[in-house]
Amino acid sequence: MKPAVEAIIEQSVISVAPMEGLTTFPMRLWLSIVSQPQSMTTPFLRVTRAFPEREIPSTFAPELYQLRDVLPYTITPQFISGDPEQFLRAADMLPPSIAPILEINCGCPSPNSLGRLAGSGMLHDAESYGRTIERLSAHLGPGRLAVKMRLGIDSPEEFPVLLAAIASLPLARLTIHGRTRADGYRGHARWPLIQRGAEDAQAPVIASGDVLGIESIKTLFREAPSLKGAMIGRGVLRNPWVFTEIRRGHPTEMSLLTFVNALLCYVLIQELWHSHPQKLITRISSGRIGNPCGTDYGAWEKLTVELTAIVFGVPFVLNHGFGLPSDAVSPVAFGRLKILWAYLRSGLPESFAKASIVRSKSLGQFFERLLEAGRELEKPTLPITHQAEWDSLFAGARG
Ligand SMILES: Cc1cc2nc3c(=O)[nH]c(=O)nc-3n(C[C@H](O)[C@H](O)[C@H](O)COP(=O)(O)O)c2cc1C
Fold first, then answer.
1. pLDDT tens digit string along 174-189?
2. Is residue 77 in contact with ligand 1, taking CB distance under 6 Å?
3. Which residues pair with 15 in a beta bridge?
């Protein structure tokens, strides 16, 4: 009997996709607290002749160094380079004891990458792509190199030849983003081609593109049953509780104050990472920050108290009567919150779509307006679930 799709999903690795500028360490930490994904990949580190000089900066992935085995997810470092020599030079700075798997980015669509034959630029010629990946894989040894690729540069018709060039290699995993470079991030990822990759490649294949929640992941695994996992990219920003949704099999709901304090924790983690990274690392190492909170108000309250005490010197939680000072955090941390919000609001009820929230000039104003929007909710709980019809309005679909 064919296993039910739910059982296949349970046995698969559902992870956070790398997103440059977004899934840096503070976001990864917060996502782990929010909904405990099993595994994540760093955004790419651009490797050149001059960088990194002697060692990988520890801020790139503290999970590999000071926070080794402290947080409940595995982390795969990703590099991008148009020069295989430089990739290997940097790879030697991360021995297998530190990074059992190392990923090469063969998908970045930026003109800068393309021009340097890095990222999706590596896909310009299937033969040289195959040769380069084979060489890197041989140097690192079987089961160590992971590859993340797009379907091609201009057309998905390039994919079968690109796939054939690396299909027999003993890679740790092959992640296929079901779009071409020309697609950017628009249009629907071509899951049937990813299934073809999963049938032909020797390595476990992971799908990337358009996984947004329990319903889309079920459809993906029905259409591509040979997959060993899936990565969620923009979907984790639209609904950071998406891993809870997938585990439970239905969308999540929480109280407004749970949600608001979870967001406050996000901005405070960003603030701490920006201004006192060592303080944050010490608190994580001692187990005071990093425990799962999910949709549990009590757990978020405890974390909010811990973080406000460090950042403001006064422990408190946000509620309907409590305001924040207008210059509460640095513009960097506030900016990070606004970027997250641009995606997140597309997963919320309509009262949160107000432009006034986006236009808030300070953290205090932002949370005041958020609480105000929350008063318009019909039910005492706040549902968070992906709403496809809103993606074109916000949530980064245009990019
Ligand atoms: C802002 C942004 C930055 C990204 N940065 C990276 C990156 O550093 N490395 C990478 O392999 N993919 C990167 N991607 C691609 C994602 O990992 C993922 O493959 C893509 O967004 C498709 O998945 P989605 O439809 O779930 O978002 C990025 C995507 C976005 C939107």
1. 999 999 999 999 999 9
2. no
3. 39, 231
